[in-house]
Amino acid sequence: MLGAIAGDIIGSVYEWNPIKTAEFPLFSESSRFTDDTVLTVALADSIMSGIDYARKLKEYYRLYPDAGYGGMFHAWASSERSEPYGSFGNGSAMRVSPVGFACGDLDTVLEKARESAAVTHDHPEGIRGAQAVAGVIFLARSGADKDEIRDWAEGEMGYDLSRTLDEIRPSYRFDVTCQGTVPEAVTAFLESGDFEEAVRLAVSLGGDSDTLACITGGMAQAFYGGVPRHITERVLELLDERLRSVTVEFMDRYCSGWREPVL
């Protein structure tokens, strides 16, 4: 979860100013958390409190109304209605990382990921995106190697991961769909050698940078055993007290050893 938040904050600077390189400052005066972080923390809060996903998503929307939500989510969250709106946007995938860390087996991960997506993103692609991200996180933290993770994402989730980042990058553009975000984020993770490189590679695609890096960051945290200390410290500084306290509580509960240095 912390890795997803780190990716969001690092990628936030480049969401509307896309770059095609992995060489950039990790943090700047413009670095901030966005709706990706807010809704990730909302799901973490839901998991820990037992309060249903929809209620928590709306609660956090009211607490952070200017975090940069998509139009359809804004309309849903600000209304009294509770039915989903058929979205296949990448919002279901960007917020799902807590599910991958909190659940104890893959079947439960996939079911809870489906539930977390379906309150808004009940289109099959919205659900598939959330399940794929949570499933990769679960496999990564459970000891699967990258070949096993790739095989699962292609075989069980049906994503085409045959293109390399160098093949994707030249023509890749801003894309808010799950099907145009999740495979690219998985590929960035698979091609990385450590947490920081994973996030840098996601941003380098030049698309929806905060969401790409958020999704990749959750996977990278799970696989590499945490988030490097210099990134962790800066990320926690950039969160407000509410978001920081929920994040720390979740990490303490589900990510043992996260306070230890990660190289």
Please give the largest β-sheet: none
What global shape is seen?
globular
Give me the secondary-structure category: mainly alpha
N-C termini distance:
18 Å
Number of domains: 1
The proportion of residues forming helix, as a percent range, comes to 55-70%
What is the alpha-carbon Rg in Å?
A: 16 Å
CATH architecture: Orthogonal Bundle
Beta-strand content estimate: under 5%
Please work out how many helical segments DSSP would assign. Answer: 15
CATH class: Mainly Alpha
Q: Uncertain segments of ≥5 residues (pLDDT<50)? A: none
CATH homologous superfamily designation: ADP-ribosylation/Crystallin J1
The sequence of SSEs as H and E is HHHHHHHHHHHHHHH
CATH topological fold name: ADP-ribosylglycohydrolase fold
Question: Can you count the beta strands?
Answer: 0
| Mean pLDDT across all amino acids | 96
Looking at this protein, list some descriptive labels.
0% strand; ADP-ribosylglycohydrolase fold; 263 residues
